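thread from #wetlab-drylab

HS: before we spend reagent money on co-crystallization trials with adenosine-5'-triphosphate, can we at least see a predicted complex? here's what I'd submit
DV: go for it
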Amino acid sequence: MRFDNNNNKLNLIIKHAKSYGFIYNSCEIYNGIKSIYDYGPNGLVMKNNIKKFWWDYMVRYRQNIVGIDTSILMEKKVWIASGHIKKFKEYYIEIDNKIYKIKEFINLILKNKKIKRKYLNLLNNNKNKIYKLLKIIKKKKLFNNIKVKKVNLMFRTKINPFNSKIYTYLRPETAQGIFINLKNIINSTKLTLPFGIAQIGKSFRNEIVTKEFIFRTKEFEQMEMQFFITPGEEKKWYKYWIDNRLNWHFFFNLGKKNYKLNNHKELSHYTTYATDIEFKYLNKYKELEGIHFRKDYDLKQHIKYSKKKLIFFNPKTNKKILPYIIETSLGVDRLFYSIFCKSIKFEKTRTYLKFPRFISPIKIAILPLIRNNINIIKLSKKIFKNLIYDFNIIYDEKKSIGKRYHYYDAIGTPFCVTIDKLSLIDKTVTIRNRDNMKQIRYKINLLKNYFKKKFNIYTFFKKSIKY
Ligand code: ATP
């Protein structure tokens, strides 16, 4: 299917995600809440598959990376030390009741010939000059109604129910939970430099402009890994992690040309240099994952504010050092969206999700061809019981076989196994492939091995991680 514009495609994606139990707008019965979403039964399983694939690759199969699970609510001082209270801010620009981020605002006024380029250049070099530009805009009466405010993106919340002066913030990144636990981790494990600490968890940002479905939301999940290294080794490890992360993304098979590396010119307050792995979602390349060289910024800040020492030894010289940090930070929801965008296929007779097999929520559907034959049902249930502990599968005897195929294509199930009268005689079944709808007959007693080969992703890990 060809689309006149991306909104059409986006609307179909949103509709499909809702109709087939992947993603619902939160609080829909109360007309929904903007930029917050819930995951349905299929969405949840798919999200868990994504997280497991990241965890296995980053933690499970590596000897020098451990995992941690820290709290969302932390002492306010953490955010003072990290710089988020002072610097995690964005311009909120409202023009005639429409909200713009600074980049969009620049694009908007770029189109306006009355604004001289020199003012825009001024803004490009220093965002704080926005107020000067604003004066010019007001003087020239370019817009009826324009308001500009610099706002902090963190959600503030009371931490003591009796005293509103005692407050903190919901975490805007999972990273700080790792830094403040570093002392505990090195004292309670056998890690020596270089090593990593990984975490998957919710983060919250009161984003100004959200727009594209789950691309940017106010509540989202991050998969972050902080890699601690000896100073001087940053170039080597920075390159290592960019290559590693990019290769990991390629395994989803969504087309290598859809990925691009972008060296950040605009740096957040904690980064020395940063590279984004960008992805072409609908028509534009946008950030998927960030690889940041945080240097010793965070550790220095926490040492300064907590007044606690952090003693590390250079393994080569045995002298005291403060390690540098390279961070890899990826949004689960954003990755989910990238997979959904590229996997949805619109054909004349069906819409289906060509998910990478290892990510599909349901791997195999066991479908007796007819319902009123006890022997077929018995055999189907036997096959189901034999596979259920090895794969996430489903048994379904409801509705016509055509409708069932249609449904399992729509939720991205790679294989349907159909049991018919012939199965009772020759002990074979039909395996139907989601992508090309081709069917083959296969021996029942060989099914488990057949699927084990089809869903094996460990060759990828074996190739990608060196010990
Ligand atoms: P963007 O500018 O695209 O909002 P960012 O540069 O602020 O992203 P980082 O602070 O580097 O993002 O966060 C690391 C990763 O976390 C991002 O690459 C993205 O995958 C994810 N992420 C960040 N903010 C959001 C959000 N509001 N909704 C969903 N995912 C997010």
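DV: The domain at 43-84+160-343 is CATH 3.30.930.10 (BirA Bifunctional Protein; domain 2).
HS: ok that's useful, forwarding to the group
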